[in-house]
Each structure stands twice: as structure tokens, then as C-alpha cells.
Amino acid sequence: MILDDKPYFSLNSFLRNKFKEKIIKITLDGGFTCPNRDGKIAFGGCTFCSSMGSGEFAGNRLKSVTEQFTQQKEMMKKKWSSNKYIAYFQAYTNTYAPLDYLKKIYDEALIQEGVVGLSIGTRPDCLSQDILDLLSYYNEKTFLMIELGLQTSKDSTATLINRGHDTNCFKDAVIELRKRNINVVAHVIFGLPYESYDDMMNTVKFINSLDIQGVKYHLLYIIKNTKLAQEYMKNPSIYTLTMDSYIKIIGDAISLTNPNIVIHRITGDAKREDIIEPKWSIKKWELLNSIHHYLKENNIYQGKYFNA
Ligand code: SF4
Fold this sequence. Notes:
Number of strands: 9
Bound molecules: iron/sulfur cluster
Shape: globular
CATH topology: TIM Barrel
Number of helices: 10
Low-confidence stretches: none
CATH class: Alpha Beta
CATH architecture: Alpha-Beta Barrel
Radius of gyration: 18 Å
Structural class: alpha/beta
Mean pLDDT: 94
């Protein structure tokens, strides 16, 4: 049931429908690292990933989960009157630690007042049998979402961005999570180097082909102090998306997306002072308004061209 005025199944709509009130995501840093950075899989990480492990808006990792939660909650109170939350472990790889540590921080998040669920961002190759069992336990206990970085279904691009796993690995992880009835949210990036329009739409079709409950569509940011930034300095032609082209891509992605999949995001978030490109994305609200205007003008809605 769509509960807001967007022509797609938004996260806000999904959560309001499920919990009958506004739910706020509180973004936390559990103090993790990433096997794609520390050498277990690769060094340096995905080329687009910032030094914060793509968790720019998470809490301060030097503080406890409770302290981070309290601080973020106070900030959110200025914006929203709701007092129900999903604790979101965002920065780095949030299942990459011993089980007792994972249990400790997930439990600490769950006992915070008003928390109705957990969202955990991780890699598909960081879901061992033990971890899947642990996640299954939390899935019985609370509302759980596991957010997996796919970015693209094209393996040659995945190699280029140093993702560190192939697309089959992602697919296998989705199957394992779904065997346990765990909600899966896929992260996708549009505008990756050398990706064509068809490559991006193929990624959307790949998402449609799996039993996936949510998707986050991001646009590629070139962030200071990343490997991608170094590549961009040497060869600026790796970044070609204009604002108009991104708006068209996101419109086409929405119309192609299975209408049952919750669309959590239609653009990403980056600290404006860290963005090298695209500069047009710095005014995020202008971009969002332009996308919504474009969707309306062109009668685009989720699933318009979805073919089961
Ligand atoms: S898997 Fe995530 S945290 Fe690790 S390098 Fe890639 S984007 Fe960064």
C-alpha cells in the first residue's frame, strides 16, 4: 500500500505501512573494518569508498553504540516528532567481526528506547554459516534488513572498482538470506566508469530476477581521497553523467523495477565538501525535486515497464 505521494514504493511508505507510524533510521558506526581494505580480500577497498567506509553520516566510532544512538536521536528530534527507530549499522562491513562482538553491539542497539528493528550493511562474502545463524536469530527477534553492496551486476565493472567478489557471490548470499526469510536490500550505483545505459538497466533487471525486498539507487560520487578520485584526476572522462542523464536513468530504473521492491533511495548522500564530481549533486534537494518533477511530467511510476 502506497502511503505517500511518490510514484514508487518508498521506504517511508513501507515502514509507515508496517509500523503504522513514522520510523527514523539512526545511523551507527560499530567500529568495523572491511576485508576489502585490510588485505583479507584486497587492500584499499572499492575504488569509490571513502576513508569512512561509506559511512559519512554514521555516529562517531570512538563512542559506544548507546552514546551514538542518544546523540543521533537528539538531532533527529529537531526534524521529526516520531520516537520509533531502526538502528542502522552503516560504516564499513558490519558482520566482519567475531560473533560475540557482533552480538554485543547488535544487542546494545536493540535495547535502545524506541528501536523497532535493525539494518545491517555488509558484503555478500561476509556471511558465514555462523553469521547467517546469528542473523536468523535477530530476524526472529526483531525486524531485520541486511543491506548488501552490489553496485553493478557487470563483473568487469566490479573488477574495475575492486569490489572483491563476483556477482554470483551476491546471488548466493541473497539465496542464503532468503532461506532464512531475512529481508535483503541491494545497493546499486549508477554512473560507474565505462558503464553504458544498458549495463545499468541490466543491473536493475538482475535485481528483479532475485528475491530482493529493497533497493538503494545511488549515483556515483567521486569523493576526495579515494582511489576513484586519483583515477579521475588522471582521466576525467571516466565520469560522464550529467544531471539530466542521471534523472533519465533513475526514471527508467524506477519504471523497470519490480513494484514489490521497496525503493529506499533514488540518490546517495555524501558530504558536500568532499564531492569532486558530480558538482550538480551538491544541491541534493534540487536534484530530488527535479527527479520527482520529471517522474510526474513523464507519468513514470514503479513497475511501468516491469516484465515478470
Ligand atoms: S565493501 Fe563497503 S566498506 Fe568495504 S571497501 Fe567496499 S564500499 Fe567500502
